[in-house]
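User: Assemble these into one structure.

Assistant: Restating your components, then the assembled model:
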Amino acid sequence: MNYSELINRLSDRTGNSSEKTKDILGDAIDVLTRQLMDGKGVSIPNLGTFGTRINPEKKVYNPHYDAYIMVPRKRVVEFTPASGLKDDVKFIGGEDE
Amino acid sequence: MSEKITFKELVDLIAEQSKQSHASANSFVHELVKIIESGLKTSGSVSISGFGKFELRWMNERSGIHPQTGEEITIPAQNKVVFKPFKALREEINKPYSFLKNRLISGEYEAIPAGFDEEMASESGKSGTATPNRDTFHDSPKDQSLPTVDELLIIHDNPHFSGGKSLTQMDSSIAMPPPIALPDEDKIAVEVQKAGTFKWSYAAAIIIALIAFILLFYMMSNTTEPDITQAPAQSEQLLVSPESPAEITENDITDPEAPMVPDPDPVVDTDDADLPVQTEFTTEVYSVEPGQSLWSIAESRLGNPYLWPLLYHLNRDILDNPNQLPEASDLNIPSISNPDNLNSFEREQVALGYFSLYEWNRTNNPDEARYFLWAVGVFSPEILDSPPSQPDPDDLAFARNR
């Protein structure tokens, strides 16, 4: 499902115009991103937990230079799906993938 | 992830931002979650522009060990929900570290694995706790911290060059073989040992030193006369103060002669005083709001967060611990004309700020202190050459060689 489908369905369900829905979704993402930037995590019921983690500096091999490269430490987003969501989608359409 | 906010707080923030009631924000988020779930069920992926993509990933059957009983079990094939943040979000989240760049570990490092690996290990061990202080210093432009081979050669060719007493320090941190003379091989070995970074490369260092020595002799005999035309700028500067190499411009941070300098402090000081430039900041008073740090104030008021040591330096009477700002205190904020291009006085003041931080960290955080000293040299090599108080010799060597 892409973004416009998501917006369409969301505006159907909430009764807002799709413009309004886009705005609200944008605000929601903004708020969430800001929390993550401050290093705070948040759990959303039935969806999962968002958080951040710092990956330490590591040494990797780069075949182009035929040399090792120090990749600096990096902060990344962590997402742990809620167990309800995990169980719901566990065996959907798996076989044909 | 240490702190968390509750879902209710999140919904409140969303409601505030989108100017609607808590209830409607709440139902919005719940609808969103439902749609994401149904989207995952029907199409296996849901993308949210500006944020990321939720998708199902099919995991094949695999064997595992039951965490409680220790029995070997077969984990059936199943879907896993993964979230892939889009580039915008990734960059936003990584902002505090975005200035850290990949570093190529050259073949020369590979040749000296023992010491180097130890150093790496100890550094990455520390990185878990990630104090942002240390990162501050990786920001400076590369060309300032490492002189090019050409620059070294210019210094080299110069007849005033008094014969490289000190390049051992350079050799010991960077395995770059600049053709510089080494009068005393035993001395190098001792120095290198002290630095404790290579164990394998004594032989290599000595050979390089010998080659360099021969080369220098060769060049000296060839180029004694034409030198002056070759590097006029350099010799001009040296004429100004032939005995105080500290006067060589900023570009020569790792000037091999520099380590000899700290003693003739007074000479350098008087020279500095002669400069007909700004000598004081015009400041304004700014009262700290809760949640602010020197870093954030420097970012908002000075335009460059890396100038925060300047604030510390100018407010030493109020501040002791640079990491703790007393709430509602009034800070003096200097006005900086162009944060991307500081004038020499501003650079000097920032360097003094880093030096104050170095002194504070030396007593409170000795492991990280040397990085502050290094930053002093980045902003103002002159301050590093004539510091307000005598730094630890090991730290000084580190700061010069970095």
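Chain A touches chain B through 69 residues (CB under 8 Å).
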